[in-house]
């Protein structure tokens, strides 16, 4: 198999993936999106003979556009640009989950400070304000009072990018000091972990403690349905337990399309990069002409 890796920086996650691919003697074409151009009829990157391309771009904008062009050239890419488009935007993510009947936190979107304030007041305090595009828990705010809401909304109002004029307000879910990250391939869980912290943000990127987690039947069903809702692929499905630990009741608050897995690989017995490459080999084989005859 000859596999392309779209990237802008090689992190530990990419190193784990590259090492596994090399151990299996796969050819690798590393495509630094910072150094290439993507035109309507081709790209300066060498993609013509690739069996599959894996998007590992750190930047959301580069990810969305590069995968769209790669797909335009007829080269199989994971995740698909359609999946990336839904997962990269929290509002589209929420809409997709709700349309599929997957439980997800109550959410409202507003476009002015006044309307956003009304949305916040309708939830009561605390509630959560998130950027529609973003990762690692950045620019997320737990709003505990009217004065805090007014200050945060005013700050967002004067920020330049149009996305800051989209106010994404969500109910505050009283989770038991942790959430659950599931790495899944087309809805099939590879492994899962909890991310725990005394802070309301439990992301591993924010310093949350990680530990392996055994999914029950309810969680397994939600992961599959959530994956289907956004088009499948290599995804990080994030769940919160509603009603306390081991309640068996969950809500899916986000799906990530360029999911990191180094923390997961370090806290479970499963060889995560090996399982991911198993899946990539299957996807590449399915995409070959011989596989469709």
> Total strand count, please?
15
Strand order of the largest sheet: 13-12-11-14-15
Strand/helix succession: EHEEEEHEHHEHEEHEEEEHEEHHH
**pLDDT under 50 segments (min length 5)?**
none
Structural description of this entry:
The protein is of the alpha+beta class. β1 (2-7), α1 and β2 form a beta-alpha-beta unit. It has a 5-stranded antiparallel beta sheet with strand order 13-12-11-14-15, with helices on both faces. Strands 2-1-5-6 form a 4-stranded parallel beta sheet, sandwiched between helices. Strands 7-10-8-9 form a 4-stranded antiparallel beta sheet, with helices on both faces. It is globular, with a radius of gyration of 20 Å. α4 (90-99) packs across α7. The chain contains 10 helices and 15 strands. The model has no long low-confidence stretch (mean pLDDT 91).
Topology:
Elements: E1 2-7, H1 12-23, E2 27-32, E3 38-39, E4 42-43, E5 52-55, H2 60-72, E6 77-78, H3 81-88, H4 90-99, E7 107-110, H5 113-123, E8 127-130, E9 141-143, H6 146-158, E10 167-171, E11 178-185, E12 188-196, E13 209-212, H7 217-230, E14 234-241, E15 250-256, H8 262-265, H9 272-287, H10 289-292
Parallel strand pairs: 1-2, 1-5, 5-6
Antiparallel strand pairs: 3-4, 7-10, 8-9, 8-10, 11-12, 11-14, 12-13, 14-15
Helix pairs in contact: 1-9, 2-3, 3-4, 4-7, 5-6
Keywords:
10 helices, 293 residues, alpha+beta, 25% strand, single chain, 5-stranded antiparallel beta sheet, globular, 4-stranded parallel beta sheet
TL;DR of this structure?
By secondary structure, this protein is of the alpha+beta class. The chain has helices at 12-23, 60-72, 81-88, 90-99, 113-123, 146-158, 217-230, 262-265, 272-287, 289-292; strands at residues 2-7, 27-32, 38-39, 42-43, 52-55, 77-78, 107-110, 127-130, 141-143, 167-171, 178-185, 188-196, 209-212, 234-241, 250-256.
């Amino acid at each position: 198999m000859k596999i392309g890796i779209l990237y802008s920086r090689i992190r530990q996650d990419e190193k784990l993936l590259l090492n596994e691919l090399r151990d299996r003697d796969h050819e690798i074409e590393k495509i630094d999106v910072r150094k290439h151009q993507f035109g309507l009829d081709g790209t300066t990157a060498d993609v013509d003979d690739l069996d599959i391309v894996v998007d590992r771009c750190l930047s959301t904008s580069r990810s969305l556009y590069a995968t769209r062009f790669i797909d335009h050239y007829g080269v199989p890419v994971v995740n698909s640009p359609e999946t990336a488009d839904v997962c990269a935007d929290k509002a589209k993510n929420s809409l997709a989950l709700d349309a599929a009947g997957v439980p997800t936190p109550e959410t409202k979107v507003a476009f002015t400070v006044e309307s956003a304030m009304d949305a916040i007041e309708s939830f009561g305090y605390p509630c959560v304000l998130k950027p529609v595009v973003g990762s690692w828990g950045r620019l997320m705010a737990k709003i505990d009072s009217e004065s805090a809401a007014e200050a945060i909304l005013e700050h967002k109002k004067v920020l330049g990018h149009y996305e800051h004029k989209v106010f994404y307000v969500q109910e505050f879910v009283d989770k038991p000091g942790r959430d659950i990250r599931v790495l899944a391939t087309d809805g099939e869980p590879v492994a899962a972990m909890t991310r725990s912290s005394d802070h309301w943000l439990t992301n591993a990127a924010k310093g949350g403690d990680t530990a392996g987690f055994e999914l029950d039947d309810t969680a397994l069903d939600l992961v599959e349905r959530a994956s289907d809702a956004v088009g499948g692929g290599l995804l990080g499905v994030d769940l919160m337990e509603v009603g306390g630990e081991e309640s068996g009741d969950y809500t899916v608050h986000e799906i990530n399309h360029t999911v990191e897995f180094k923390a997961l690989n370090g806290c479970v017995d499963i060889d995560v990069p090996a399982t991911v490459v198993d899946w990539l080999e299957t996807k590449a084989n399915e995409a070959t002409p011989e596989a469709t005859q």
